[in-house]
Amino acid sequence: MKYYLNCLVVITLSFFYSLNVTATTYPENAVEKSLISAEQASSADILSSLEKADEKPEKKKSTFSASAQLGLLYQTGNTKSGDVKAGLDLRYEKNLWRSLFIFDALLKKTEIVNSDGEDNFETTDNKWSVVTQTNYTINSTKRNYLYGNLFYEENRFSSFDSQASLSTGWGRRWYETSSTSFDADVGPGFKRDVTRPTTAEREEGIGSETRDSLILQAQALYIQKINEHIEFKQLLVAKHAIEKGENSLYKSETSLTSKLIDSLQIKLSFIVDYNSKVDPNKANTDTQTAAVLVYSF
Description:
Blueprint: H1 2-25, H2 30-54, E1 63-75, E2 81-94, E3 97-113, E4 119-137, E5 144-155, E6 160-176, E7 180-195, H3 199-203, E8 210-225, E9 230-241, E10 249-259, E11 264-275, E12 285-296
Antiparallel strand pairs: 1-2, 1-12, 2-3, 3-4, 4-5, 5-6, 6-7, 7-8, 8-9, 9-10, 10-11, 11-12
């Protein structure tokens, strides 16, 4: 009996000792704290996962800009004449693509005395042109690009009924600051000139002639923002015929634009067009000086 009592005492003491160790090792709120910590960790992990899912690189938003220009001149007195110059400039940019569309038109009427001594208000200048180009950026620095260019022009009082060209090649933004940029591109192309028959040729029943030629096209554009209101641009274009004796076309356009109000500017421009091969009674060089109002929208 004494042996059994001793065993009972030992078991009882061991039980209370184990309770004390358990209470010391695992506090009363340990389980609750563990559950809370697990809940907090799970919430944090979920939020972190959601944030990481949202951390995707944002795609560059597309931008579209447009402007229209209009200039009028009407003279009376000893000489009567009227001039209208109009234009449209559309530009679109998205990610690695940049596109532009430019339309220009010029109409001029002048009072002319005919052989009978009568005054007639006749068209003395009628010209319109379209230029469109698309660039695709080919590297991360966004300086080099591939381009495709299309040009078409009709000039009623030149040696050509129409002139058109198609070119593709490589270009680069050679210089850029917050106020200045310089772009240039070069590439092979194809040009088509439709000649205008002279009066003598028309009388003989000779019509227009189509002349196709391969060209090397080069373009350069310099832009300088003089201040927040005034901008200077210089554009040079060369469509040089590869075959000797074919007509080559060169163009220079110098412009100065000044902001009048938020969306309205005044633009002064001087344009020189040169064709290397024209009719004997036509001039190789045409110049145009203009002042127009430009509205951006």
